[in-house]
Specification:
Elements (H helix, E strand, L loop, with lengths): L1 H31 L4 H11 L1 H21 L5 E10 L5 E2 L7 E2 L4 E14 L3 H68 L4 H36 L22 H11 L1 H21 L5 E11 L10 E11 L7 H67 L5 H36 L5
Antiparallel strand pairs: 1-4, 2-3, 4-5, 5-6
Helix pairs in contact: 2-4, 2-5, 3-4, 4-5, 4-7, 4-9, 6-8, 7-8, 8-9
């Protein structure tokens, strides 16, 4: 038996060693595959603690609904106890031994059921308030998901933007180095001055310094994205995305209408107002009577003729409770509930106005970015043509070094401006989606 066990264990270990490289290779391929924006947002949602906390708040709110619904059912309790009493009531007749009416040792065990028969809708209000609380928690979760998604979008496209900006700077540095080499040759030949060489070198160092700043920003963005998505430090960030856009004019009126219907902030404000309305209704019912019933069955001693004998007993009754004077607490509760309802209504109105403003501002920013894309595209084409002419003229001795450096800098600035306009347009598109309540995956 032991030999068979050893043989099977060895076979299993060998199979595991054979399969393990394939699994590791598959895991490496999975980790190295390009990350789309949708996949990045999914990872961010899975690893964000605030979203997990918001989801637990929804679970807690659901449990509060069941707590309030428990008032519709009888409340059943069991109790048992012992009590010693001394002295006890007794009476003597004709000088004989006194008769004891109750025992010194008292035992009792019983089961009691209590139920509210009528409370004029108070329990219903409490349940509805709990339901409104769950709806509010759900909307809060939606807001948290949207904000995490939007933050991921910002970081995702921020990384792409910085990488493209670094490529533009590298392209400028390459062009400047070619100019530096050519100027150095001309300086050695006596057709250029030392100032020309130094000017070109200064431009190269300035471009390098700018590139270093962009690389630092890129590093910060990559660290933030790893924190959001839970990706390991050694996992390559191969992001799949671009700034290819087709600028279009949005319909502001339709977008505002969509925002009013879909924004979770408005839904949340509506739930707060509904909750305040229910609390006001509950406060108005505080002065009404409550009818309840109770029944119990148990065993106890203390009954004649044998007060020490344990016997069964049953008790049942109906109770009506009506508050007559509560120290002005009821009226104060009603005033508080009415004030909170008015405050919730004002907050809902303010939220609606803020939603309209968000959409209008974003539409304007999107339109500005659209115009910038069209403008910067022309600037890039003109700057490319100017740079080509400047290089040819410089090589033929018809342009100064300063002319060449200025055109190279103008080309880099035009390309960065076009990239910035495309980045602004893409990001404003997602900002508009957030403003209108559109779901991010």
């Amino acid at each position: 038996m032991k030999k068979k066990l050893i043989r099977y264990t060895g076979m299993a270990a060998a199979a595991l060693m054979i399969a393990l490289p394939f699994r590791l290779e598959a895991a490496g391929e999975s980790a190295a595959r390009p990350l789309t924006l949708e996949e990045t947002i999914r990872l961010a949602r899975e690893h964000n603690p605030s979203l997990k906390a918001a989801a637990e708040e929804v679970n807690a709110a659901d449990a509060r609904i069941r707590q309030q619904q428990s008032a519709y059912y009888p409340q059943i309790t069991a109790s048992a106890g012992y009590r010693y009493i001394d002295p006890v009531s007794e009476m003597g007749f004709g000088g004989g031994e006194p008769i004891q009416f109750m025992p010194n040792d008292n035992y009792e065990a019983k089961i009691t059921a209590k139920a509210t028969l009528l409370d004029f809708g108070k329990r219903g209000n409490e349940v509805d308030i709990a339901r409104a609380g769950k709806n509010a928690a759900s909307h809060t979760l939606d807001i948290a998901r949207r904000d995490i998604s939007y933050q991921t979008v910002e970081i995702f496209y921020g990384i792409l933007f910085l990488r493209e900006s670094i490529r533009v700077e590298e392209k400028e540095i390459t062009a400047l180095r070619k100019a530096f080499d050519y100027t150095s040759k001309r300086y050695q030949a006596g057709t250029a001055t030392r100032f020309d060489v130094l000017s070109t070198d200064v431009r190269i160092q300035a471009a390098r310094s700018k590139k270093l700043g962009l690389e630092h920003q890129l590093r910060r963005h990559e660290l933030t994205l790893r924190r959001l998505t839970g990706l390991a430090v050694n996992t390559p960030l191969d992001l799949k995305g671009n700034f290819s856009v087709l600028p279009a004019r949005p319909d502001e009126a339709a977008l505002v209408e969509n925002a009013i219907q879909r924004r979770p902030e408005l839904k949340l404000a509506g739930e707060y107002e509904q909750s305040a309305r229910l609390r006001r209704s509950l406060a108005m019912k505080e002065g009404l009577p409550v009818v309840s019933a109770s029944a119990s069955w148990g065993v106890t001693n203390g009954y004649q003729p044998d007060i020490d004998e344990i016997r069964e007993n049953v008790a049942a009754g109906v109770q009506v409770e009506l508050p007559i004077f509560t120290g002005f607490r009821t009226s104060a509760q009603r005033q508080e509930a009415a004030a909170l309802l008015r405050a919730a209504a004002e907050r809902r109105i303010d939220t609606e106005e803020q939603v309209r403003t968000d959409v209008q501002e974003t539409v304007h920013a999107l339109e500005t970015a659209r115009e910038n894309i069209l403008t910067t595209e022309s600037q890039v084409q003109q700057a490319k043509l100017a740079a080509e002419h400047a290089r040819a003229r410089y090589e033929n001795g018809m342009a100064t070094t300063l002319d060449l450096l200025d055109t190279e800098a103008s080309l880099a600035q035009a390309e960065l401006a076009r990239l910035q306009a495309a980045y602004d347009y893409v990001l404003n598109n997602y900002t508009l989606k957030r403003a209108t309540g559109e779901v991010f995956w």
